[in-house]
Amino acid sequence: MDPEGPQALCDLCLAQVCCSLEALCSKRADGSMSLIWAPLFPPELADRLLQTMASKEMLNDSTVGIFRDSKELRLRRASIRCCVMSAEAFRLALCPHRLLELDASWASEGLTGASVVSGLVSSPECSVSLQKLSLNGLHLDWGSLEESCVGFSSLLGLRTLHLANTDLTDDILEDICSLPHLESLDISCTPVSNLSALLQCKNSLRSLIAHRLRQLNMSPSRLLFVLSQLDALRHLDFSDDRLPAEDTDGRDGDEVARQLLEGSSQILPSLVSLDLSGRKMIGEAALAAFVESRSGVIFLGLLATGLSSSHVLTSLRNLKVTGEANENQVCEALRRYTERECFVQKALVQLYRLTTDADTAQPDMLELVLGAMKSHPTSLHVHLVATACVFNLTTQDLAEAMPVSLIRSTITQLLHAMKTFPNHQQVQKNCLLALCSDYILQDIPFDRYVAAMLVINWLSNHQDPTLQRMAVAVVSILVAKLSKEETAKLSQDVVFMKQLLAIVQQKAMVGVVDSTLKFALSALWNLTDEMPSAARSFIQCQGLELYEEVLESYYNEPTIQQKILGLLNNIAEVKELQADLMDEGLLEHILILLKDTQVEVGVRYFAGGILAHLTSKAEAWTLDQDFRDAILKQLHESIITWAHLEREMVSYRSFCPFCPLLQTCQPSGVQLWAVWAIHLVCSQNTSHYSSMLERDGVTELLKALTAHPDTHSDIQRLVGSILRTVEGHQSSGAQPL
């Protein structure tokens, strides 16, 4: 079981409500949904329902309509982050609530900062109750406000406001700073040019995040004066993540940062947290002066400053630092800078170097890497390094020591990266390296069909031998783990079949025997297992002709022959396709393999299976009758000499293909092959196959063979052994799996 334990009942119930929303609702005239009946939800539960709907990407103008009933579904902390919603739907569904917090960051479909504020102000409840508002990433569109008196200052209870990555102007900032209770303000990545408005809230402002203000037009002395007046300020973020290619050198900002560090503790006397990450021009002397004069400081942001390994930090054990010097600093950076792509990329580069030889499972660190990938789903810079970090953190046995749910989320992110960056070889390589793990591929639940398609599509456009080997290995294991429905769907994709056959042909042309060839053959074998559509597709793609050539050219390679014969055995099981195998030259070659005592039993076993299926229907045999009789005779003579195998050679999804071979009217050679096969797998894995015998009706067929007077004694002996083994297992109290 996953160490994290089962999912919380509340989460399961909310997920079920989301799945059943259509059935639970009626439709209003405008198309919005309304719950037919609802109990009185506690505000915390209503908030979680909204959040669950948002996380499942099902929140829109129609579904958000259920929250128009503000008596039963009472929202207090609402998040519509990244949701698609119109201004009108927002006003009708969310504004009637007595909201304390609202996060509408990065919302789309006509929702602007102006429409959000206008809607909130129109509500007597919200205009007083709202304490925290996040509009990061929204177009404010302030000019669209019809009433000039409406603004942020109308939200009288507002204490926290986040406006990062918006078109914030100096005039709007002036309005914001008139709020009587403003304590926390984020104006990062906005085009504001003057921060003098902050002087209006100097007695209340406790946190100012002013990251990457590229259009700031203030002299260092004026900016420092404004900042120095904020006596209540406890946290200041004046970081910058400028890129080398950008025109501005940021020296004015760096100068302000340096003076802040060197200044007296009487400047910003309440300061306990300072973030100057990205400010490259500040020196170690300035940092030392700040640390020595500020004994109460608890956080310093020093990523990409060159100062995070400074000796003045080593003795400060309670000080949290973002930087590159050690794992703690890097992880702190990933936690704090989730939405800052440049900082995230720099932190991940350091994390990769620090985890190259990781030998201890670090799930918390992996969580941070996944968070970075989720926050920047289209960033090549982030995914290039993040996927490499994932490999470092999950390689060897590290993944097995982590929660299953975490590894499952990891695979989901890796598949997203493969889909998003299909032509970037290093990203694909990193993902394949991470996926190429028996534990991950065999034991972790994830969408294996999607994974197989992504890998095979990548293979069709790339020829790198190392990546090809890994990709084919992954595909081989994935195909074996697919459900019958998924395998059927996959078999309809001709590209998938042709790509695997092309690899077989490529290797066969030069006569090479390597893991890539073996994995490709295994994948094709698994793909056609009890899957007539896949077997038919194999034939239509000229796979049969290719396999005949490979069978002859690899006569002395038992592992190759076994995989080829295994697939031909799958075709022979399909009645409608048996005619395609009625080739005298092919069957003579297979008969030679069956007779040759120097050939491994595994190869002779599958050769016998092909011949048993093809000779089991006398009316369908189209070759010389004497040839059929010779095959049937040789089947019995060869099988009776086979030694019992200890190692597991084959596994079966069902015994259904054996049922026609076990009829009492079948020739003894046909019956003997089927009975020998069943005896082999039952003796090796009794608990698994005993239930399959009952399920597929094979037990009754075996008993019928035992009772029939014409059943050969060799068959009687094996059948008796099978039945005794199964009966002994059941009487011991073991339950069939």
Automatic annotation (TrEMBL):
InterPro entries per record: ARM-like, ARM-type_fold, LRR_dom_sf, ZER1-like_C, Zyg-11_UBL_adapter
Superkingdom, natural source: Eukaryota
SUPFAM superfamilies in the cross-refs: ARM repeat, RNI-like
Domain Protein zer-1 homolog-like C-terminal: 372-727
Keywords per UniProt: Ubl conjugation pathway
Leader sequence segment: none
Family per similarity comment: Belongs to the zyg-11 family.
PANTHER family, per database record: PTHR12904, ZYG-11 FAMILY MEMBER B, CELL CYCLE REGULATOR
Name recorded for this polypeptide: Protein zyg-11 homolog
Organism: Oryzias latipes (Japanese rice fish)
